Amino acid sequence: MPKQVLKYIGCICVVLGLGLALFNVYDTFRAKKSEEKILAAYNLKNDLDPDVLIDPDMDMPEVELDDLSCIGTIEIPSLDIKLPVTSEFTYDLMKLAPCRYSGSVYKGNMVIAAHNSWFHFGRIHSLNPGIKVVFTDALGNQFVYHVAVIETLSPESVEEMTSSSYPLTLFTCTLDAKNRVTVRCK
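Above: the chain sequence. Below: its structure as tokens.
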């Protein structure tokens, strides 16, 4: 009798594991659809004055999309990624698109967080130094960076994440969600 119980428990575990894997695949594609919809709306709605002079102390201009506010787009051509970036960070917003975690591109201290799904930042661990990263603000100004360093930080390393001397930092969870893949750009 105990062997049969173990078989049933094993079958239940396999079914639950498959269910979780399928949910993760669904969630990845849901995030892709959401990002595409936001990016399309962002491109249509971006009617800000491009002749505004940039002051490092000014707030980053935002494009309002229903209940979502975007400050620009992040592009990593080598990964074929172009994503809208929301103006603030919440876990719910991060399901939709990458989020500004802290800082400003104008002050040279911006940190952007995204999920580690295939279509968001799930592949940034594979970037090499020198790879181009482009942030385009809501006014259309492009800021071109290159990957300088890729490191792994603990979730508790918030100060280290946000106070580096690099003008742009991208991060996401590692696959096991125990640490953060951190890409520093100059």
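The first strand starts at residue 63 and ends at 65.
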